[in-house]
Specification:
Length: about 80
């Protein structure tokens, strides 16, 4: 049941923090390869969003900052028909 625990750990951490995948791995101890898979799954389910692209504090490279806090999700710029 390690997978569910890792997914839950990631989701809960991202409720209170906006970080990159590398920073998330460092903070939670979940391997980055696993985080990439969970990130994709959560994005497809509408539970995770990329907020901004910036320099990662962990690696020094540009990366997406992510969150599961829906109040921080970017507003959709797509127009609705009705």
């Amino acid at each position: 049941m390690q997978t569910k625990n890792q997914l839950q750990t990631i989701f809960e951490y991202l409720q209170n923090n906006v970080v990159t995948a590398s920073m998330l791995s460092e903070a939670t101890g979940v391997p980055q390869k696993n985080i990439c898979r969970y990130k994709r799954d959560l994005q497809q389910a509408g539970q995770l969003a990329e907020i901004k692209k910036g320099v990662c504090q962990q690696t020094g490279f540009k990366a997406w900052y992510i969150t599961t806090d829906k109040s921080k999700f970017p507003k959709s710029e797509q127009l609705t028909l009705f």
